[in-house]
Amino acid sequence: MSLQMISVILGSLTIASGLMVVLSKHPIRSVIYLVITFFFISAMYILMNAQFLAIVNMIVYAGAIMVLFLFVLMLLNLNKEMEPETSRMSLITAVIAGGTLFLVMITALRDTFQYGKGYVQVPVQDAGLVEKLGKLLFSKYLVPFEISSILFIAAMVGAVLLAKREKQIID
Amino acid sequence: MEQLNNIGASLDFYIFVSIALFSIGAIGVLTRKNMIVLLMCIELMLNAVNLLLVTFSTFFGNGEAQIFVFFIIVVAAAEATIGLSILIMAYRNSKSIDIEMFNKLNG
Fold first, then answer.
1. Predicted local confidence at residue B4, as pLDDT
2. Distance between CA atoms of residues A17 and A33, nearest Å
3. d(CA A100, CA A103)
4. Could you read off the pLDDT of A113-142 as tens digits, one per residue?
5. Are residues A86 and A138 in the same domain?
6. Average pLDDT, chain B
7. Residue-number span of the structural domain to which A157 is assigned
8. Residue A171 is assigned to a structural domain of this protein
9. What is the pLDDT of residues A59-105, one digit of tens each?
10. Distance set, CA B97 to CA A1, A77, A104, A117, B44 (Å)
């Protein structure tokens, strides 16, 4: 099996599991399909030799963020009656809008497709290796990196403050 | 002779996959009423953008796009945390995760 075959299968599986995220009725199934989609996207990163991002995607997205979603889903203790219904009218409108978005973007990037024809084989790229990315991250992008840590502290404090249970008033 | 590395498919294939994922995420945001699934569709759209950035980064041999993907992942993690805590608070107040509940905010 050639590498091209593998990547085509990988791409169609990614799109299929992405569709299942939207289509499945149960939120927990949506989470599981989203995790599967993230693993396929990580596999694509490995195909493109972006090793660092493949690992980060697996650990942070499929590991941390999705576990957070699952935790919240389990905490809320939802049942089937609480699943909100979508009206048929809004469904049709949304599908038309999304399909138009897809067509417009494909048409807009048609010139890029022509350009990309000769690029099936590209020179060996070591841009995605940890060494190169680390040097870039800690020299040119040092300030944004530090600012992102402040963002994380703000998000953490905000999350604790928002989700804290308010004190019961006992009279 | 330059050493060549086969990355599987051509540029247009990866662009197609990422645009398809983005559109699927957009359709999900427009159709689903469940707030958690809505947040997940936003994550799907963010991942489509990440895939496009990594594709172009690989094709042009420039690592800076991958730094941006790293920052997008950072911001997405913060966004998911805040979104989910707002969701928990909203659920506590109204016992519902229907996004229509926020219509009450317009007074």
1. 47
2. 6
3. 5
4. 666 555 555 555 677 788 888 998 999 999
5. no
6. 86
7. 129-166
8. no
9. 998 889 999 999 998 888 777 667 777 788 888 999 999 999 999 99
10. 46, 11, 33, 46, 20
Same domain for A106 and A139? no
User: Which residue of B2, B33, B54, B102 is the best one to mutate when testing the A interface, meaning the one whose CB has the most A CBs within 10 A?
Assistant: B54
Q: Report long-range pairs for B99-107 (Cβ below 8 Å, ≥24 apart).
A: B99/A84, B99/B33, B99/B34, B99/B35, B99/B38, B100/A84, B100/B33
Alpha-carbon gap: A143 to the closest alpha carbon of chain B (Å): 12
Domain tally, chain B: 1
Cβ <8 Å between B37 and A30 = yes
Q: Do A119 and B11 touch (CB under 8 A)?
A: yes
By the 10 Å C-beta count (0-12 exposed, 13-18 middle, 19+ buried), A77 is classed as: exposed
SS3 letters across A65-130: HHHHHHHHHHHHCCCHHHCCCCCHHHHHHHHHHHHHHHHHHHHHCHHHHHHHHHHCEEECCCCCCH
- For residue A124, the model assigns a pLDDT of 58
Answer yes or no: do A27 and B36 touch at CB < 8 A.
yes
Pairwise CA distance, residues A106 & A136, whole Å:
32
Of A32, A44, A53, A20, give the one whose Cα is nearest residue A130: A53
> In this complex, which of A53, A112, A123 lies closest to B15 when CB atoms are compared?
A112
Please report whether residue B1 resides in a domain.
Answer: no
CATH number, residue B54? 1.10.287.3510
pLDDT in tens, B46-101: 999 999 999 888 877 788 899 999 999 999 999 999 999 988 888 888 888 888 88
Q: Are residues A66 and A144 in the same domain?
A: no
| Chain B residue whose CA is closest to A125 | B61
